[in-house]
Design a protein that fits this description.
Strand content of chain B: 15-25%
Oligomer: heterodimer
Function (chain A): May play a role in DNA repair. It seems to be involved in an RecBC-independent recombinational process of DNA repair. It may act with RecF and RecO.
Family (chain A): Belongs to the RecR family.
Order of helices and strands of chain A: HHHEEHEHEHEHEH
Keywords (chain A): DNA damage, DNA recombination, DNA repair, Metal-binding, Zinc, Zinc-finger
Strand order of the largest sheet of chain B: 2-1-4-5-6-7
Shape of chain B: globular
Strand order of the largest sheet of chain A: 4-3-5-6
CATH topology of the largest domain in chain A: Dna Topoisomerase Vi A Subunit, Chain: A, domain 2
GO biological process, one term (chain A): DNA repair
Number of strands of chain B: 15
Radius of gyration of chain B: 22 Å
Largest sheet of chain A: 4 strands, parallel
Shape of chain A: globular
Largest sheet of chain B: 6 strands, antiparallel
CATH class of the largest domain in chain B: Mainly Alpha
CATH class of the largest domain in chain A: Alpha Beta
Structural class of chain B: alpha/beta
Number of domains of chain B: 2
Number of helices of chain B: 10
Distance between the termini of chain A: 68 Å
Number of strands of chain A: 6
CATH topology of the largest domain in chain B: Glutathione S-transferase Yfyf (Class Pi), Chain A, domain 2
CATH architecture of the largest domain in chain A: 3-Layer(aba) Sandwich
Order of helices and strands of chain B: EEEHEEEEHEHHHEHHEEHHEHEEE
Pfam families (chain A): RecR_C, RecR_HhH, RecR_ZnF, Toprim_4
Helix content of chain B: 40-55%
CATH superfamily of the largest domain in chain B: RecF/RecN/SMC, N-terminal domain
Largest interface: A-B, 18 and 24 residues
Distance between the termini of chain B: 24 Å
Chain lengths: ~200, ~375
């Protein structure tokens, strides 16, 4: 009521974004008013095209503007390894590392009966179909190390194990460059559990 | 260890409050509904990061205020630690040494407390939930990792119960998912049970002689762990795990029929025997009270043995509930070694020499006046 309608609409829109409260929304809205018109137009277009042009890759479920996605089309990648992650952001994180040259599979969530999310509500059936058709030798389960992520990993491994495909789970433990003394007890005990011979 | 001072801001009926405490006996005196228990609760919250009176943190914030803050300095043998708890609409923050702790299990344990309130007198005859809470709180103080496993267990249990309900109503048929959740549940359940067993062993060692002392060698106390599965306390984690595995697989149909998890630490209980008779069913009220008192005193000694320092004792309106004999036994035990907070409506209710040197705090409607005796 204090603002003219166009700007109060803009403030409302910013509030819908995660991590943005009413004060930040006001600050951002006023910043937009002072931006060059071209920049504002680009910004608006970017928002719309991100929404309109991106879909989920039919093979791996990653976000993409072409189907199948760039990673699935890339012939130089290793078909024998699939890394299973919960979120498209996890694929980006893995890709930044530039160490992994296999394929991905994005689940878009984790199993949580409490929230009504069963195995069929996340991208598991598509994964099982992929495993039937493709020549996969190893499945890396890189779901998050919490209750739901762990349950999802265990569930997939139960289903896939009979097929003889090698199943691995990413390691949990100490962050690199950190100090042992600052690690919490739980992480430390996980790190101890997952120790290996040198 | 002892609490040197405390500062409250917008906490329940205290707008602003700063107090410096005696390192031994502090008596908080006031009529009902003036704020005695609120002060005791604030100390408790500083130690445990949550209240024992409510599960809703919002209730701790003063009416029409946006946040509540408790600060305190805890003096330990060789150093002191500033502690801080903040509550607001966004949630709570726990700061240790001015640094925010992401996990509460990193915070709890910095200030060890033993609380003795009138409800605790019902520990023996009250609900199993009370006794589980008692044992969980105590282990958590000594071994913070326990809190983590308990939290994970509760989470998985909720998930599993949800799935069992769906299987019961035939909305779901995925038994593989059930077995995954069962495996996760067992992992934490067996750690919890193992830790409870080793804690009980310690509790027995301390509680039995104390109980004998209070009862003037007329009674002997034994404590048993009552569990839904067939285990011995000497079993290690692997063996406990194995027993859970067979129990769950044998009872899968029954669990689906009932739509809930039938086995695990959340269903276990403690049983107390005096002279080989179950105190809960056959004990007199006096025996039940003596047992509760022995357990609380044992807790104090147990924490001293495990942590290396005496905890702080909170006696909330409980002294007047104890008869002369038990009262003086309690005060004799803590005299000169444990910092104690006693809340009462009148000092004359307490007949013991320790009161002569106590620091007195008079509470009236959210303000406190301090007065030193002796």
């Amino acid at each position: 009521m204090y603002y003219p309608e166009p700007i109060s609409k803009l403030i409302d829109s910013f509030t819908k974004l995660p991590g943005i409260g009413p004060k930040t929304a006001v600050r951002l809205a006023f910043f937009v008013l002072n931006m060059k018109e071209d920049d504002v137009l680009d910004f608006a277009k970017a928002l719309v095209s991100a929404k309109r042009e991106l879909t989920h890759c039919n093979v791996c479920g990653h976000i993409t503007d072409q189907d199948p996605c760039v990673i699935c089309q890339d012939q130089s990648r290793d078909d024998s390894v699939i890394c299973v992650v919960q979120d498209p952001k996890d694929v980006i994180a893995m890709e930044k590392m530039r160490e992994f040259n296999g394929r991905y599979h994005v689940l878009h969530g984790a199993i949580s009966p409490m929230d009504g999310i069963g195995p069929d509500d996340i991208n598991v059936p598509a994964l099982l179909n992929r495993l039937k058709d493709e020549q996969v030798e190893e499945l890396i389960l890189a779901t998050n190390p919490n209750v739901e992520g762990e349950a999802t990993a265990m569930y997939i491994s139960r289903l896939v194990k009979p097929s003889g495909i090698k199943i691995t789970r990413i390691a949990h433990g100490l962050p690199m460059g950190g100090d042992l003394e600052y690690a919490d007890e739980v992480t430390l005990s996980k790190a101890l559990e997952g120790r290996r011979e040198l | 260890m002892y609490i040197k001072n405390i500062k409250l801001q917008h906490y329940r009926n205290y707008h602003e409050l700063a107090l410096t405490f005696d390192d031994r006996i502090n008596v908080i005196i006031g009529e009902n509904a003036q704020g005695k228990t609120n002060l005791m609760e604030a100390i408790y919250v500083l130690g445990f990061s949550k209240s024992y009176r409510t599960s809703k943190d919002k209730e701790l914030i003063q009416w029409e205020q946006s946040y509540a803050k408790i600060e305190g300095t805890v003096l330990k043998k060789h150093y002191q630690v500033p502690l801080e708890m903040q509550f607001s609409a966004k949630g709570k923050k726990a700061k240790l040494n001015h640094l925010e702790q992401r996990r509460l299990s990193d915070y709890i344990g910095a200030l060890n407390l033993v609380m003795f309130a009138p409800e605790d007198l019902n520990l023996v005859k009250g609900s199993p939930q009370m006794r589980r809470r008692f044992i969980d709180m105590e282990i958590g103080q000594i071994k913070p990792v326990y809190i983590y496993h308990l939290g994970q267990y509760q989470k998985i249990l909720k998930q599993r119960n949800h799935l069992l309900k769906e299987l019961q109503r035939k909305k779901q048929h995925d038994l593989t998912l059930l077995s995954v959740l069962t495996e996760q549940l067992i992992e934490h359940a067996s750690i919890i049970i193992e830790k409870r067993f080793s804690f009980l062993e310690l509790l027995r060692q301390w509680a039995a002689p104390i109980h004998q002392g209070i009862s003037q060698h007329k009674e002997s106390l034994t404590i048993n762990y009552d569990t839904t599965i067939d285990v011995l306390e000497s079993y290690n984690k692997e063996k406990i795990k194995h027993i859970y595995e067979t129990t769950f697989s044998q009872n899968q149909r029954k669990e689906i029929e009932r739509g809930t998890t039938l086995f695990g630490p959340h269903r276990d209980d403690l049983l107390f025997y005096v002279n080989n008779r179950n105190v809960q069913t056959f004990g007199s009220q006096g025996q039940q009270r003596t047992t509760a008192l022995s357990l609380k005193l044992a807790e104090i000694e147990l924490i001293k043995a495990e942590v290396g320092e005496y905890p702080v004792l909170l006696l909330d309106d409980v002294l007047s509930e104890l008869d002369q004999h038990r009262q003086s036994h309690l005060l004799n035990t803590i005299q000169g070694k444990v910092q104690t907070f006693i809340s009462t409506t009148s000092v004359s209710d307490i007949k013991h020499e320790t009161i002569e040197q106590a620091e007195l705090f008079y509470v009236e409607n959210g303000t406190i006046t301090q007065q030193r005796r002796g």
